[in-house]
Amino acid sequence: MKVAVLTLGCKVNKYESDALIFKLNEMGFETTDKLEQADYYVINTCAVTNEAEKKSRQMIERCKKFNVNAKFFIMGCASQNRPMQFGQKANFVQGVASKMEIIKHFEELGEKIYDLPSEYEDDLFSAQTLTRAFIKIQDGCNNFCTYCIIPYLRGRSRSRSFASVISEVEKLPKETKEVVLVGIDVSDYKQNGERALVDLLEKLDKFGKRLRLSSMEDNLITEDFVKRLKKLKNFCPHFHLSLQSGSDEVLKKMNRKYTTQDFLNSVNLIRKYFKNAGITTDVIAGFPTETDEEFEKSCEFIKKVEFSDLHIFPYSKREGTVAVKLYKDLPKSVKLERVKILEKIKKETKLKFIAQNDIVKVLIEEEKNGVFYGYSENYIKCQLVGDFKVGDIVEAKITKPRVDASFCEAIRKIL
C-alpha cells in the first residue's frame, strides 16, 4: 500500500509529516510527500488564514484526480479548528495532538479530536536526508495576539528536552550540513521553567553543522543572548524577528508586547555583534484598526530598520480571535493596495542589503540545468556554476544582487 503524506503550512507541520513518513516506512508502507497516485492520503492541514483552510479542503479534490477511490485522513490545525468542514470527503479526521496515532485509524471511519497536551509530545522523529534538517524543539504558544488563532489550536507552549533534541541531531547523516530549529514559538523554548534556547545552541554547536533559528520574538534579544550566539562557531547570523506592524498604536491593538523602539533596540543590538546579519520579518497589511496614517508610520519604520527581507500578508479575518470580536475588517481593496506598497519597499531594502555583502558561504541545496542554488549564512539566496554537488559549502563572491537568487562567482569549496 502506498501512502502520500501532504503538508500545508509551517515548518513544524513539515517536520511532523516527515516523522509520520519515517514511521510508515518502518511499518512497511511505500510513502511519498508529493501529490501523486496513492492508496491513502494523509493531509496535514493549516489554519493560519482563511485561504490556508480553503487550500486544505481543496487538497482532497486534487488528490482524487490521481485516485478517486483512495482513502483520506485529515489532521492538523484546520481540522482542529473545524473538523466538520471536511465532512463526508474524509474517511477519518483528527486534530493537532497525537498525530502519530492517525496510523491506527487507517481502517476506520469517523473523527477523533484528542485533547491538547500540556507536555511536549516526544513521539516524533524524522529521518533527515536533506542538506538542511528541520528539528522541532517546541510546540504551542502563550502570546495570544488578537489576530491569531494558533494558540487556541496548538495549545500552550511546551518544550522538548535537551536530550531528545541532541539525540536526533546525533543521528543526522553526514550529508546534513545545516540544522534549523523550529517551533510555533521557538523564543519560548525552556528547560525547568527557564529560557534555554541559547543553552541548547551551545550544546549543538559541537556537532559542526550550521545552526539556524526559525522565527523569533523581540523579547528574546538581550545582550547576553547575542553575545553568547557570537561565540558559537556554527551559528548562522539570520534573525527572523516578527514585527507585524511598524505602528505602536496598531501593535498595542494586536497585543504585541513591544514598541517599535523596543524592536529597533533589538535590531541595533544584533547588528552590534553581527555586522551583516540577515534580519527578516513578517508584516500584516491592513489590520482592521490600521489607519492611513498608521500604515504610513509602519512603512517609514520598515524603511528605517532596513530588513533583509519581508514576508507580507494581508490581514485575514479569523473567527474565534479577539480582533474579529472587537474590530470591523477593512475593505479587501485597501489591504491589497497596502500589500503592493510593502512589496515595493521589500524589493528596495532587500536589494540594498544584498549589495552590502561581498563574500558569502553558500550551502548548495539544489541543482537545475547545471546551475547550483543555495543560501548564505545570513540567508541570501545565491546561484552559481562550477564543479560542485548538492551538500557542498562554497565560498563565493556576489556579483549581481537579485531579489530571487543573486548571481555569485565561486571562489573555493570549503566542505
Write the layout of secondary structure elements.
Elements: E1 2-7, H1 11-26, E2 30-32, E3 40-45, H2 50-64, E4 71-76, H3 77-81, E5 92-94, E6 110-112, E7 132-136, E8 138-139, H4 150-154, E9 158-159, H5 162-170, E10 178-182, E11 190-191, E12 194-195, H6 197-204, E13 210-213, H7 223-230, E14 238-240, H8 248-254, H9 260-273, E15 278-285, H10 292-305, E16 309-314, H11 322-326, H12 332-355, E17 359-368, E18 371-376, E19 381-384, E20 393-400, E21 406-413
Parallel strand pairs: 1-2, 1-3, 3-4, 4-5, 5-6, 7-10, 10-13, 14-15, 15-16, 19-21
Antiparallel strand pairs: 8-9, 11-12, 17-18, 17-20, 18-19, 20-21
Helix pairs in contact: 10-12
Account of the 3D structure:
The chain has twelve helices and 21 strands. It has helices at residues 11-26, 50-64, 77-81, 150-154, 162-170, 197-204, 223-230, 248-254, 260-273, 292-305, 322-326, 332-355, and strands spanning 2-7, 30-32, 40-45, 71-76, 92-94, 110-112, 132-136, 138-139, 158-159, 178-182, 190-191, 194-195, 210-213, 238-240, 278-285, 309-314, 359-368, 371-376, 381-384, 393-400, 406-413. The protein is α/β, with parallel strands linked by helices and 415 residues long. Helix 10 (292-305) packs parallel to helix 12.
Descriptors:
pyruvate-formate lyase- activating enzyme, 21 strands, alpha/beta, Rossmann fold, 6-stranded parallel β-sheet, 31% helix, 12 helices, globular, 5-stranded mixed β-barrel, OB fold (Dihydrolipoamide Acetyltransferase, E2P), 415 residues
Question: What CATH architecture of the largest domain would you give?
Answer: Alpha-Beta Horseshoe
Strand content range: 15-25%
At the first level of CATH, the class of the largest domain is: Alpha Beta
What count of helical segments does DSSP give? 12
- Domain count: 3
Rounded to the nearest angstrom, the distance between the terminal CA atoms is 40 Å
Strand count: 21
Overall pLDDT score: 95
